[in-house]
Design goal:
Elements lengths: L3 H6 L6 H7 L7 E3 L5 E3 L1 H7 L6 E7 L9 H14 L4 E5 L4 H5 L7 E2 L2 E4 L1 H5 L5 H21 L6 E6 L3 E3 L9 E3 L10 E3 L1 E3 L4 H8 L3 H9 L2 E5 L4 E3 L6 H8 L6 E5 L4 E4 L14 H10 L2 E5 L4 H16 L3 E8 L1 H7 L12 H19 L5 E6 L6 H14 L2 E5 L1 H4 L5 H11 L15 H13 L3 E4 L1 H12 L7 E4 L19 E10 L4 E6 L18 E2 L5 E2 L3
Parallel strand pairs: 3-16, 3-17, 4-15, 4-16, 8-11, 17-18, 18-19, 20-22, 21-23
Antiparallel strand pairs: 1-2, 2-14, 5-6, 6-14, 7-12, 9-10, 12-13, 14-15, 22-23, 24-25
Length: 555
């Protein structure tokens, strides 16, 4: 059996110019990065601005488990299947982060015969967007410390610098550190910390900005610190937003690649969904809607995280209206939610499946609360039995939701035809999309609405620190923004051990922070780290390159 990377390396890719030509992209609008990837000039969007949008399809999932769900694989395979049905389809995905690639998860370009390619290049440096975001963020950090060193004219309190340095790698040793040691010439000593690049506000800004001009405005609004008199300091006060934007002038352009079946993919931006808003860029999604009759995109982790933020943050910000939602699950993952250890999820167990199906039910109900038609996609494994599938069918019938078995991992687009037909039907159904809450409501009320309606919590407990931070945000006049919940992806609650559909719990909000440039308020719940760590045996131990430059071991 071939591995993902072996399948990808044996594929027949088309030159990226041919993919662009199929979409009607003109030669001067394409900026190739090698043979199989390119950036798209803002001129494309400008030229197509009067063209009607296609239909927007979101792919989300149940809570992730060690048994796997295959959300990106399903997204890619669904796009390939719709192309086989002669539908003009463009897929819009996030870029992978090097942290997970070398950590536990591995690559993030799909799997099997439903992959975005060139897989190795996408998962490694790609077109340099992650590096540009890291550089822009750290330029701002360097300028803050330089301002302290050069006399601190703004009166910044070194104890209240909010902005963190970042890097696109899992490195737990940098969660807390001291900078400025070694004498007067080496800077003002203070506590500092790093977060992973995909959790940075600069990443969120890149993904929510309309264009380069909007990007610059948003960068200037980043809240970086407070002064000794407790007044705020923004990035614009330091005079470096132009330099930051210069570093990001190419990174803001969407990237064009393809699937194994040559279906076009716009891959751009990559915020995590458990600690950020978890969606690809607004610019890429808008462009996909102009270039195709259907845009298929995904949001990170389960519907309680990425999908909720896709609707309440991204769609609100960009004025997007989705036509359908696909909720991905596997019978293995549902049995895991029903209490079966990972090692036994391949065995038939109707009782465990019955117990775990409630997790799927919660996610279907979550999506319906936004007024959008829902289709369930079951990423099928060869160990799934007829009895288990029959139980699934019975449960979906009780929810009055359409479902389809998907075999895109093994068969590519051919294995997703049934799913594609169900999704096309859903796109023609009446839709009354709306957000979950209005942004003019109090901060606590918005958080409580998400916790109650999406997580199923009985209520929310706010720490004294969170209460104080809410008052600070209110004093800045920034409280009328959507909320971005930072929460474990493994459970509907803030406790990763509570599987299935937990009840009788409350959510604890430990910390509240303002991302004024991105345009949302972050609520940190549970034990969420914005800088992940590596496992005992990281994926990095298996990745290598041979004498000819061929990457091996990447999955």
């Amino acid at each position: 059996m071939l591995t993902d990377i072996e399948i990808a390396q044996s594929a027949s890719l088309l030159p990226i110019q041919q993919i662009a030509q199929r979409l009607g992209i003109e030669e001067e609008e394409l900026e190739p990065y090698g043979r199989y990837k390119a950036k798209l000039s803002p001129a494309v969007m400008k030229r197509l601005s009067g063209k009607p949008d296609g239909k927007l399809i979101l792919v989300t999932a149940i809570n992730p488990t060690p048994a796997g769900e295959g959300k990106t694989t399903t997204t890619v395979g669904l796009g390939e299947a719709m192309a086989r049905l002669q539908k003009n389809t463009v897929i819009a995905l996030r870029e992978p982060s090097l942290g997970p690639v070398f950590g536990i998860k591995g690559g993030a370009a799909g799997g099997g015969y439903a992959q975005a390619v060139p897989m190795e290049e996408i998962n490694l440096h790609f077109t340099g967007d992650m590096h540009a975001i890291t550089a822009a963020n750290n330029l701002l950090c360097a300028c803050i410390d330089n301002h302290l060193q050069q006399g601190n004219e703004l009166g910044i309190d070194p104890r209240r610098i909010i902005l963190k340095r970042c890097m696109d790698m899992n490195d737990r040793a940098l969660r807390h550190c001291i900078v400025g040691l070694g004498g007067k010439v080496n800077g003002v000593p203070r506590e500092d910390s790093f977060q992973i690049t995909v959790a940075s506000e600069v990443m969120a800004i890149l993904c929510l900005a309309d264009d380069l001009a909007d990007l610059k405005k948003r960068l200037g609004r980043i809240l970086v610190a407070y002064k000794y008199d407790n007044s705020p300091v923004y990035a614009g006060d330091l005079g470096v937003t132009g330099s930051m934007a210069a570093l990001l002038k190419d990174a803001i352009k969407p990237n064009l690649v393809q699937t194994l079946e040559n279906t076009p993919v716009l891959m751009h931006g990559g915020p995590f969904a458990n600690i950020a808003h978890g969606c690809n860029s607004v610019t890429a999604t808008r462009l996909a809607l102009k270039l195709g009759d259907y845009c298929i995109t995904e949001a990170g982790f389960g519907s309680d995280l990425g999908a909720e933020k896709f609707f309440d943050i991204k769609c609100r910000c960009a004025n997007l209206t989705p036509s359908a939602v696909v909720v991905v699950a596997t019978l293995r993952a549902l049995k895991y939610n029903g209490g079966v250890p990972k090692a036994e999820t391949a065995k038939e167990n109707l009782d465990a499946l019955r117990a775990g199906l409630v997790n799927l039910g919660a996610h279907v109900e979550n999506m319906r609360k936004f007024g959008v038609p829902v289709v369930v996609a079951i990423n099928r494994f060869h160990t799934d039995t007829d009895a288990e599938i029959a139980l699934l069918a019975e449960y979906c019938a009780s929810l009055q939701v359409e479902y389809a078995l998907s075999e895109v991992f093994a068969k590519g687009g051919e294995g997703g035809i049934q799913l594609a037909q169900k999704v096309l039907d859903a796109c023609e159904q009446p839709s009354s999309f709306h957000c979950l809450y209005e942004t003019d409501r109090p901060v606590k009320e918005k958080i409580e609405t998400v916790a109650r309606e999406i997580y199923g919590a009985d209520g929310v407990t706010f720490t004294a620190q969170a209460e104080k931070q809410i008052k600070e945000i209110e004093s800045l006049g920034q409280d009328q923004l959507p909320v971005c919940m930072a929460k474990t992806q493994y459970s509907l609650s803030d406790n990763p051990a509570l599987l299935g559909r937990p009840s009788g719990f409350t959510i604890t909000v430990k910390n509240i922070s303002l991302s004024a440039g991105a345009g949302f308020i972050v609520a940190l719940t549970g034990d969420i780290m914005t800088m992940p760590g590596l496992p005992k045996i990281p994926a990095a131990n298996s990745i290598d390159v041979d004498a000819d430059g061929t990457i091996v071991g990447l999955f």
